[in-house]
Amino acid sequence: MPHQNDGVFHKSSVKTSLSGDTQLRCPLKTKVFTMKSMLLVLLGLLAFAQSESMADVNERPNIVLAISDDQSFPHASAYGCKGVSTPSFDEIAAAGVLFHNAYAGSPGCSPSRASLLTGRYPWQLEQAGTHASSFPSKYAAYPKILKQAGYWVGYTGKPWGPGNFKAGGRKENPAGPAFNSKTEKSPFSGISNKDYSGNFQDFLDKRPDDRPFCFWYGAHEPHRGFESRSGLKSGKSLDDADVPAFLPDHPVVQSDMLDYYREIEHFDLHLGRIIKILKDAGEFENTLIVVTSDNGMAFPRAKANCFEYGIHVPMAISWPSAVQPKQQSEALVSFVDLAPTFLQAAGVDIHPQMAGVSLIGHMQGASLERGAVYSSRERHSSSRYMNWTYPQRAMRSGAYLLIHNFKPDRWPAGDPVKLNADGTLGPAHGGYHDIDACPSLTFLIDSRHDRKWGPYLNWSVDKRGEWQLFDVEEDPECMRELIKSPRVKRIREQMMAQMNEFLTSTGDPRMHENGDVWESYIRYSQIRKFPMPPTQIPE
Ligand SMILES: [Ca+2]
């Protein structure tokens, strides 16, 4: 297991101010905040109520969310990652704000996307707070609110999911209606043939009355599987792979990382085409664009874990007509902030269900008064005996990440062994289904007796303590466990008390009497069968 760190622990807290090479203290020139624009919005709403004509409210900004699937925070060239080339992400960052501390709602797709859509924490969303269940219609999602305010709404690619939104009483996906008819030849077998940018053009072509629009570009990349060696075939070299410390710096893993980089570049390619479409239509300046990812990379000890590589995501936001370019922010921001940001930009009241705060004031120069952000997970895949969950809550504050593993007796990556279809016992290490099948996982399992590589499997799949603490500024790979160090006693106690208080006050069932309620929620994806789990890892 990771050794104890006896290094230096006193850290400054995360800065919340913006920095950049432009004048930041600009007056609030945005249409949202001026009397003139408020009048326009009110007049427009009146006109909409009377005739559905949107002519008077078209000054409102368009909203575009570009969300990749499983991309960890360092993996964009704007963050200095050398192996991946993301000129479009970088362009949005240069046109607005590059965020260095953005946290997804959850390290898994469905709960993270639900958190983004509703501005609520996953533990406040019942079935939508766990993976591949349903999405109760009583929770307001921003695309529908904007649709009701007259926006033209749609998505391409991957919306909220996986899961069954109809079972929650909804008629359409909470991301909006689908625009997926355009396809193209995919460059590699692991990459979708959906022509995301072509579908955005189709969405725009169908827009009635030049209404403002709200579009969700949800790439399927870089979700697994990858075409093996697609990174190498694209001209990358193994030296380009920046393998995090929790994975073996071995050619198998390096090549897997390059394939992952290649898929990020596909997401970025279509983002670039969407930017061009917006510019050609004269809409780029008055479009609020958010680029991010729903959770971290699909590698062992990353996705489906509340470690940094599972919940810390890339984020860049531009809105040239209201937000100064070339800004960088160290503020702690969360997915719960995005829906309030979109609604405030659109001049719509922030829904009272929403727990986050709008980022617009911050992007216009104000500091963001927030000491912590939170993330959580419940069930991910079907990975354990009786379809059990592995509940985690995480809090990032200052330099530290605190994780509460509510069921430390369970296997964090899933039970090690599953049952075959005929009910017989499957092979040793044939489980761990909270890790997506991949060459890196296979390498870890195959190398488990190797003197050098053996510990890596343990770091990914072994049981963990109930509480974990990491200094993520010094140790973003979360390899140096600090929870028992006397030198962080005060920080540990403060953070534990604060997280408990926050979860309790925001209604987390884990802090109340119905903590296991998530295990009663239906999973609509595949269900696997597991024996009573072993208490020790098999040979
Ligand atoms: Ca995902």
What do you see in this structure?
The structure is a single chain. This protein is an alpha/beta fold. The chain folds into two domains: 57-318 and 340-357, 3-Layer(aba) Sandwich (Alkaline Phosphatase, subunit A); 376-520, no CATH class. A hairpin with a 2-residue loop joins strand 11 and strand 12. It has 13 helices and 13 strands. Helix content is 25%, strand content 13%. The protein is globular. Strands 1, 2, 3, 4, 5, 6, 7, 8 and 9 form a nine-stranded mixed sheet that branches. Strands 10-11-12-13 form a four-stranded antiparallel sheet, with helices on one face. Calcium ion binds at residues 69-70, 109, 223, 294-295.
Summarize the topology.
Layout: E1 18-20, H1 35-51, E2 62-68, H2 87-95, E3 97-103, H3 109-118, H4 142-148, E4 152-157, H5 196-205, E5 213-218, H6 230-233, H7 251-280, E6 287-293, H8 308-311, E7 312-318, E8 327-329, E9 333-334, H9 338-345, H10 360-363, E10 373-377, E11 392-397, E12 400-405, H11 439-446, H12 454-461, E13 467-471, H13 489-505
Parallel strand pairs: 2-5, 2-6, 3-8, 3-9, 4-5
Antiparallel strand pairs: 1-8, 3-7, 6-7, 10-11, 11-12, 12-13
Helix pairs in contact: 5-7
